Amino acid sequence: MFANLFDATDVHNAFWTGAELATVTLVVTIVLELLSIETAKAAYHKDKRLYLTAVGLNFWNHYVYGIPVYMTTALLFLKKNSPQVSFWLIGVQVACILVVHSLCYYEAHRTFHSCPGYYKYHKFHHRFNTFVPPMSANAVGLVEYLVAYVLPFAVACGVVRPYEISIRLGIYIVSMTNLSIHTPKIEAWSERNMPPWLVSTHDHLEHHRKLNVHYAAPTVNIDWIVAKLSTFLTPTTKLPPPPPLSLSSLSSFSSDSTPGRDEVSTN
């Protein structure tokens, strides 16, 4: 199908780039899962079927959905790499991709939680609450995968129109940070060291435990930005408090405010 619409070389390159992204992400997932083996074992023993379904979804989402989606996006939106492309331009494009992705993901994720009719598509991911292993990072259903994982990249590509190298770097950054915020081993470290404008592992694991906090993921902390903007836009100037009233002032106020005979019969 793709070969009839696009150059065969472009289709070939897009397929193998998609396969590379899927494989590297899956390998890193397995490595982090082994590093978090205690959490993985606990999740497995708590609900064996849930854990094995998560493992299967990782393979299914990356290879069955991920590769065709990347190919489509690459062939429709991406510019071919060029030796004339500067590192500065690539850096700007990657930064823009991450910001647009973060905004889109934040809105999609918050919508899943705020609209009961949509939460059913996100509910499976939150069955990992007490024990959240790295394998849960990409354990989502088709609707959530397309809306929250794929659509933000598609929007970013449509807005930025990046070079292939820029979107590849952006996908790697998002994939690796998504895995890191589902890695309990580094939760304490992230809470101590991550700047507030970036999403930390602690923030996201708190979201899994409480559901109604920290919707931003996995890179730019949109929650923090929204809170800062809200504080900046909310008037902070307060009127000085009135002086305390005493009994003498109350009696004085009462006598002064009672109309006298002269005031009543002014005519």
| N-C termini distance | 100 Å
* Order of helix and strand elements from N to C terminus: HHHHHHHHHHHHH
Number of discrete helical segments: 13
Identify the overall geometry: globular
Radius of gyration: 27 Å
Query: Percent of residues in helical segments?
Result: 55-70%
Q: Which secondary-structure class do the elements indicate?
A: mainly alpha
Oligomeric grouping of the chains: single chain
* Low-confidence runs: 253-267
Beta-strand proportion: under 5%
> What's the number of extended β-strand segments?
0
Mean pLDDT: 90
Q: What does the largest sheet look like?
A: none
What does this structure look like?
The protein has 267 residues and is an all-alpha fold. It has a domain at 2-173. The protein has 13 helices and no strands. The chain has helices spanning 2-5, 8-35, 37-46, 48-77, 87-114, 116-119, 142-160, 164-180, 187-193, 201-210, 222-233, 247-257, 261-264. The radius of gyration is 27 Å and the shape is globular. The model is unreliable at 253-267 (pLDDT under 50).
Task: Detail the topology: elements first, then pairings.
Elements: H1 2-5, H2 8-35, H3 37-46, H4 48-77, H5 87-114, H6 116-119, H7 142-160, H8 164-180, H9 187-193, H10 201-210, H11 222-233, H12 247-257, H13 261-264
